[in-house]
Design goal:
Chain B: One of its GO terms (biological process) is ubiquinone biosynthetic process. The complex is a heterodimer of chains A (185) and B (336). Chain A is of the alpha+beta class. Chain A is built from eight helices and five strands, in the order H-H-H-E-E-E-E-H-H-E-H-H-H. Chain A has a five-stranded mixed sheet. Classes of the chains: A alpha+beta (185), B alpha/beta (336). The interface between A and B is large, with 42 and 43 residues.
């Protein structure tokens, strides 16, 4: 069942640690994995319809960078850029990082996140809707994203679930501690 | 006249994608309704719905799990271009679906004439809410079930059931249309499109949102600002029926606030009223919604016979509701 994602924002320390990491290797890895996923699942491109090749910005509130995603049958790309440099995007999706991950893996419902104001969208609403519905159908597990199958995929999924659970619990604790500090001050 | 002897009501659940269909079947849906990826169904949104192949696969999966599949072909066929709707009925029949949900007379006629073994349900879009109208559809096309508009109270449903000999299905959770379905054109005044013609209420290409520096969210439809939400205030769908209007110096919600239906507390009364099936709205929603809502209502329906406590599961559904609020809608007409 859904918890409240706004209580799952990553502590600012995480953003500070991520900020200096080099972008090109991460871009290359994410782009390659996305291209392989699209090659394995051509049904996803069909479902995207008019959104193919349309750049959409995914902006985690609690990380320093934005992800500019462009899905294409042959040349899908994920670009990591400063939040101030997403001018190319036809639509923008903003939410806490763990909420965005929860949308990917089906933990959260997009409309519910919109109602609670954890998720905000700007630009072409129809593009966001098509991407959201395509990701819903992708039923994406970490194992599948890494192109694994069978036992190795199960192993990666189990480890990822546990890790993500711990990160969520840590984020919630951190948020509650912040809240208590604010009440005392 | 139908017997109103209480038996377990069927839980009819939404699926906008094959993944959602699988989630609904796994969560205990008795039946799953879905549509083809075109304007023949009233949830014709980008990225949503099924190809003919996905539909056939989905039917096979659902049947293995013990769930039925109902295919919504419930928009009104375009004059001079009825083939798309006829082909949709043929596709549904070929997929092995258990029933078609239709509203248009031409669609019903095509199904009854060409697929006599295909069960027909009358869509809520037909807005049939009188014994005379329902009997017409039953006698003419062999309709076996009618989905009732969300404008009737429970006593009105009980009275109606005593006068008809077809099954009735009512909405119990999800988005709340406050108009008599099939007769609402509000969306078309702002966008040129409506649920009945093109399968979309507030089509997304006409919707946009902006958030100002104070965190206030403005929702626009067809260029008209139709609602605003202060920072932290729960938001709703960008529909005109739940928009704010200003008249004579006063601004407020004219038809309905942003709110969703939850008729959980009325399940016992609906059963006694002779209702056959309970419908959950939300083909546009994600797997988390499907699993959460279907699972909770599975417990709720089962609790009518096994005495379980579905309260906590139902209580947790508030987060899925528009504006973070719920209502029993017209089932309890407290304003009368």
């Amino acid at each position: 069942m859904q918890t409240h994602p706004s209580s799952e924002s990553l502590p600012p320390l995480v953003s500070s640690l991520v900020a200096p990491l080099p972008k090109p290797p991460m871009e290359a890895l994410l782009s390659t994995l996305t291209r392989r996923l699209v090659a394995r699942r051509p049904d996803l491109i069909r479902r995207l319809g008019d959104v193919v090749r349309v750049p959409i910005a995914i902006v985690p509130d609690d990380l320093p960078h934005a992800f500019l995603l462009s899905l294409d049958p042959d040349n899908s790309r994920v670009r990591i850029c400063d939040k101030s440099r997403i001018g190319d995007a036809r639509a923008i999706v903003r939410a806490p990082f763990l909420a965005l991950l929860g949308l990917l893996d089906g933990t959260y419902d997009g409309d519910a996140l919109f109602f609670s104001r954890d998720l905000r969208i700007e630009g072409r609403t129809e593009h966001v809707l098509a991407l959201r519905n395509t990701l819903e159908e992708a039923d994406l597990t970490p194992g599948e994203f890494f192109g694994l199958s069978g036992q190795s995929a199960d192993w990666v999924n189990t480890i990822s679930d546990k890790l993500l659970g711990q990160v969520r619990a840590f984020a919630q604790k951190s948020a509650h501690a912040d809240c208590s500090r604010q009440k005392l001050s | 006249m139908r017997s109103t002897e209480a038996k377990q009501m069927e839980l009819v659940c939404p699926a906008g994608t094959p993944a959602a269909l699988r989630a609904a079947a796994e969560a205990g849906a008795d039946a799953i309704y879905c549509g083809l990826a075109n304007e023949t169904n009233a949830r014709n949104f980008p990225g949503l719905n099924f190809s003919p192949e996905e539909l056939a696969d989905g039917v096979a999966f659902a049947h293995r799990k013990g769930s039925k599949v109902l295919v919504a072909i419930n928009t009104f066929a375009r004059a001079g271009d009825v083939d798309l709707w006829r082909e949709a009925v043929d596709t549904a029949a070929q997929s092995g679906a258990d029933a078609v949900i239709a509203a248009d007379l031409a669609v019903l006629d095509h199904a009854a004439s060409n697929h006599p073994d295909l069960r027909l349900h009358l869509s809520v879009q037909a807005a049939a809410n009188t014994p005379e109208a329902i009997r017409f559809y039953a006698d003419t096309f062999g309709v076996k079930r009618v989905v009732l508009p969300r404008v009737l109270s429970v006593p009105e449903i009980a009275a109606l059931n005593k006068e008809i000999n077809v099954e009735t299905e009512v909405f119990v959770f999800g988005g709340l249309c406050v108009m008599t379905e099939g007769r609402c054109s509000l969306s078309s005044y702002a966008t040129g499109k409506s649920p009945n013609l093109t399968g979309v209420c507030s089509p997304p290409e006409h919707v946009d949102y902006t958030e100002d520096a104070d965190g206030r969210l403005l929702a626009r439809l067809g260029g008209f600002t139709i609602d605003s939400f202060e920072a932290g205030q729960a938001a709703g769908y960008p529909t005109l029926c739940k928009g704010q209007f200003t008249a004579e110096g006063k601004t407020g919600y004219l038809f309905e606030d942003p709110v969703s239906l939850n008729a959980f507390e009325l399940l016992g009364e609906l059963s006694k009223a002779g209702v056959t099936a309970l419908k959950i709205e939300g083909r546009q929603r994600g797997k988390a919604y499907i699993a959460g809502v279907v699972g909770a209502f599975r417990k709720a329906v089962d609790s009518l016979s096994d005495g379980g406590d579905p309260g906590p599961a139902i209580g947790a559904l508030k987060a899925f509701s528009e504006g973070g609020r719920q209502t029993a809608g017209s089932y309890k007409k407290t304003w009368r």
